[in-house]
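Worked example 2:
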Amino acid sequence: MPSVIETVDVDVPVTTAYNQWTLFEEFPKFLSFVESITQQDETHNHWVVKVAGVEREFDAEITEQHPDERVAWKSINGDDPHAGVVTFHKLSDTTSRVTVQLDWEAEGLAEKAGALFGVDDHIIKKDLKNFKEFIESRGTEEGAWRGDVPRD
């Protein structure tokens, strides 16, 4: 099972980084592979993504969420079984670290080759850089969801 762990330091407070990350419907602004996300309720959303030119859809469930600390999820249907977590770490009053860990089952030759050659690592690293540029250029989040979802 392929896995990616990438980290980026952002020049905003941890609360600002976390708050922006909780706005799933805004992900297309900085995640290159996300076409759209529709929030269905507090813990479920529907994703449309484009990977290697192929559009895919799936539903995801937030499995754990704690303000300013972490958001964990897993896919609950669709073609791409995966799970992940984003953690937020305060480095100073004005700087934070965002770490993404994503695990998935590579299906098909293109995905297996992409995992083998680190294409997925490159995409996640690039999109974390996009997040950094997005949030630092704004200096503030567009909104937030501060709810807590305990681990099952």
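Residues 119-138 form the longest helix (20 residues). The radius of gyration is 15 Å.
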